[in-house]
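Good morning,

Both structures are done.
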Amino acid sequence: MAGRRTPASRGNSINTTDGPSAADLLENKLAQLKSLLWCCYGDGIDWFDGAGPEHLENVLWLVADLVDEVGELHQRCESERAVRI
């Protein structure tokens, strides 16, 4: 299993907490979504035979959860941007 991707450094980012910024979290979630979509539609992956449909359903459920999280992070980014202005 691959390790976590290290968020890109943001020189102009102001963190109000000790954790990663919303922009870093958003970047990570988008990278995860891109990888999940590649898994679903990449060459040589057969999701339609055997146990594939069950796994595909779970992956799509995960994608839906990530989309919700990305929407929340986007709102947080906008709030952080408004504070910096």
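Second structure follows.
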Amino acid sequence: MLKPQGSVRRLKSVAGWLLAAGFCLGPWPPAQAAGPMEHYGALMDTLVAGFYGAADTICARISAGHAGHPASLYARGTVLYTRLIDSEDSAGRAEFFELADSCARLCEEWRDAGREEPSLLAYIRGSALSSAGIILMRAGKLVAGLRKLLAARHEFDAAIEADPQSYDAYLGRGTYRCAVAQHASVLGVLPFIPDLESGLRDLRLAADSSRWSRWAALNALAWFTLDEREYYLADSLCDVGLVRFPGSRTFLWPKLAVQVRQEHWAEAEETGLRLLQEYLADPQNNGYETTTLYWRLMICADQLGRPEAAESYARSGLAVRRTEDVERRRKEKIEAMRERLSQSSADSRSENRGR
């Protein structure tokens, strides 16, 4: 559904695309909320809270009652997409792409056959396409991802044109506009670059008026306002989310990013430890985020003048069980922790020689 550093983290603001763009956009407005979409409020809340087991149960309920409906694929894709983003994992990516493609294709078939409200199908199809685009971009396939995102934008535009009060579609369009505007320097291949303010207006409208996607919109706004250095606003948005969902990684990550950007190291350490406990308790933890967090906590401790704590965090970070893929992707963080411990050993030897 971007922590403080790196282009990959910026795409996790694609967790500001995280739960906002892509599959995790939430259900349709009240007038069209009958049938399978009536379950999406509960699905969104469980995903923002990080309760994947409960989300799987909701998906099973939707599939049992509405087999063959595009929303059934949409729900399953929602959970898988959120897990991919949340865990920074590649396991399940092939299944996700199959779901996204099947969902988009089924929406087209149903639209051609007149089997469902066109605005609803446009919304679901846009969500499937945008999710696939984000995952492709995170995998380094920029052009392919951009094609998906452009197609998604057209679907969201179509949904809004059909019903201007489709506020969840404003969320999808707003995250697209903000992200493209902020990446304009590297996305010059696009025929049209939207301005950031138009995207923020869409997101604010979704946060104010959407029935189901308010928390996703707040998450997106937190990340984009953070990138604009509006730290007080970003932090306040995170706090609102954490009041509703204590311990939610969806809001703890941008809060940590705000604290690091402002060099509030004590607060950052506290938030980092909260996140660390969330991932350590996750049976599907692949080591990516725990490695990142121990590295971040090491830096916080050093900035606070606590070298022994920094060394402890570094040792714990090096001891994390990682998949081969994670070992490769977190190489710089791992090396930084090794260097920190080597420096401590060298300093200790030098000190002993001087006695």
